[in-house]
Each structure stands twice: as structure tokens, then as C-alpha cells.
């Protein structure tokens, strides 16, 4: 095939635009059992454990697949048949966790909350009080469907006090936000490669307490989505059980070097915040209204209300932007009537300025007049 496609600037909440170092790292063919893949795998595992302050207590188990695969592996492995889960849902990815648990036939109850106000310790305490059979809790950290950043520290405190094991879907937030698994006493943190870690898609990670993994042998009814067996095999041999995504592992090795060089979580968070602020301010100046107040928003995805104008449709708006080289995302189910732009990945101030210009041009092209103005709202830090 000799087709070439124009490469858009991805403003999607994953996969994200990767650095040239990450792309270049993939241009090599290594054997799964060779030293390059073994050492890179070992280095990735150590780095991710360090990112959650997990040394000596947590183990990182990489798995082939996207974030959802790792979440499924974590649930299969860490929630035994006689376990019962309290799932906190306040957005699209919470709903996906519900679907996952349901598909797996797990015993669970849902604490369904609105998108805002943010879930509180009291909400969770009441739900735990109502059902003493609950052994585990699950919730997502940044719900990329809406952009809400959930207060996992506050929720984790309740879980810890009650002896309930808390599994966090940190697929969107990991690497861009501080998560101290040890201090929060989390059972497991689940993530993927292609969001704040800015690598290529294709690996997910279950970062779990070693004691939890040790106790989980035989729990998973799945052959491939078994974090215990993958971990035990990796510990013994240094290898993945089944064909690993070798190129993606190399990409991840390069991506983590860049993460470290940028100053780790703090450095990355600062860059995202800067880019996000530029985007949100620019959009407000152009008359678009954010879905969330700044205090509840993660600086990795910005959601805006669809303009209330008959010239606007998401399909026409996004197509006109795509024609100009920018890929945006529709709001998910729980945030219908909004569109989203991700700020993860190698996006510069300059990219944001070009994007804002493209939005201006698009608004003019489509003849969109009425936008919901809130440009005089002050941006929080
Ligand atoms: C991206 C994401 C996932 C995983 O989705 P995949 O489609 O499997 O990559 C899970 N949870 C959250 C919060 C996410 O943002």
C-alpha cells in the first residue's frame, strides 16, 4: 500500500500526539525474549511503581491491550467470587465500569451520583453503611467523558477506615496527576500507555499491592486477562506470557524517559495546566461556555457546551475542524450537548493558537452567530 493520510492534531482524550522520540523508538524489531524487550519491560515496571510511591508494596503488571483490558484484568483478578463491589458512578467512564462489572457477572452495587457536586466521603460512607457485604470499591479518577477530576484521596480515606479495597481507574490521569497509592492504601491503580504517559496505545497496567496479587491466584476465569498469572510469569522469567506488543514497549520506554526529563508528574501537570488554560481562555473569549467550573475540571480535557444556534451541529463543526487538521471529540452520553478537546500529548501553545484560529474560521464558515457567552468568567489557577 502506498496511501498516505494527512495526520491530524489529536485533541482527543487518547490516543494522543506522541513525541518523535516515541515514534522513532518503534522503528525496531526485537524478539520478546531478547534483552531489549526484557530490560525495557523491567524499567517500565519499576518506573510506574515509583510514580505511585509504591516501592516495596506495589507491583506493576503490564498487559497487552488498551486501558479497558487492564481494568477487566484487575477486576477479574482482584475481586474474588465472594467479593462485592461498590461502584461510584458520576460520568461516562463510571458507566463503562458498571458495564464491565455487569458483563463479568460480579456482585456489585452502584452509587449513582450527578456529575456535580463532586462525590464526597459522606456519600460513600452512607453507601457502605447501607450494605455491609461490600468488600471492594471502584471509581474513576479523571472521568474523561466529562472532564471531572474525582477526589480519590477523600474517597480512599473512607475505604481505608472501613477496610474496603479501593481499585482506581486512573487510565486518563496517571502520570499527569499525583497518585500516592501507598499513602491512600489503594488496592490497585489501573492505567494505560496512551494518555498522560504520552506513549503509543497497546499496553495497559495493573499496579496492585503485592499481597493482593499473591492472594489472587486462580481468581480470574480469563486466560489472558489474568493479572496474577501475568505477574507470576513475569517475575519468574522476565517475559510476557503471550506475544507482547514489542514496538509499543519500546515506545513506552522512550515515553517514560521524556516523562522523567520533564520533571515527572509535577512537570507534566504544569504543562497540561498551561495549555489547558490557554485553550479554555481562548474559547471563552470566543464565546464558548465550559461545561464545568474550573475547580472540578481536569486540565487534560476541556468540555464546552454546543452553541445554541441552528447553524451549529457537532457533525458539521467537527468535520470543518478536521478539514483544517484538528480532531475533536463529542461529549459522551452523560455530557450530551457538549464537545470536548483533550490537552494531553505533545501539544504546544502554538498548536492551541492555531486551533483557536481554526475555530474562528469554522464559526465563520458555518455562520454560527449565537454562542453562550461567559468570557468574563475568571479562570481559577
Ligand atoms: C481512556 C479511558 C479508559 C480506557 O479506555 P480504552 O478505550 O480501553 O482505552 C478507561 N477509563 C478512563 C477514565 C479513560 O479515560
Topology of this protein?
Blueprint: E1 9-10, H1 20-25, H2 35-51, E2 58-64, H3 67-78, E3 84-89, H4 92-104, E4 107-112, H5 121-130, E5 136-140, E6 142-143, E7 148-149, H6 152-162, E8 165-169, H7 181-184, E9 188-192, E10 203-209, H8 210-214, H9 227-237, H10 246-261, H11 264-285, E11 301-305, H12 314-323, E12 326-327, E13 329-330, E14 338-342, H13 349-366
Parallel strand pairs: 1-12, 3-4, 3-5, 5-8, 8-9
Antiparallel strand pairs: 2-10, 6-7, 9-10, 11-14, 13-14
Helix pairs in contact: 2-10, 3-4, 5-6, 11-13, 12-13
Task: Describe the protein in words.
It is a single chain. The chain is globular, with a radius of gyration of 21 Å. Helix 2 crosses helix 10 and helix 12 packs across helix 13. The longest helix has 22 residues. A seven-stranded mixed sheet has the order 2-10-9-8-5-3-4, sandwiched between helices. Strands 11-14-13 form a three-stranded antiparallel sheet, covered by helices on one side. The chain has two domains: 122 residues, Alpha-Beta Complex (Aspartate Aminotransferase, domain 1); 242 residues, Type I PLP-dependent aspartate aminotransferase-like (Major domain) (Aspartate Aminotransferase, domain 2, 3-Layer(aba) Sandwich). The chain has 381 residues and is an alpha/beta fold. The chain binds pyridoxal-5'-phosphate. Pyridoxal-5'-phosphate binds next to helix 3.
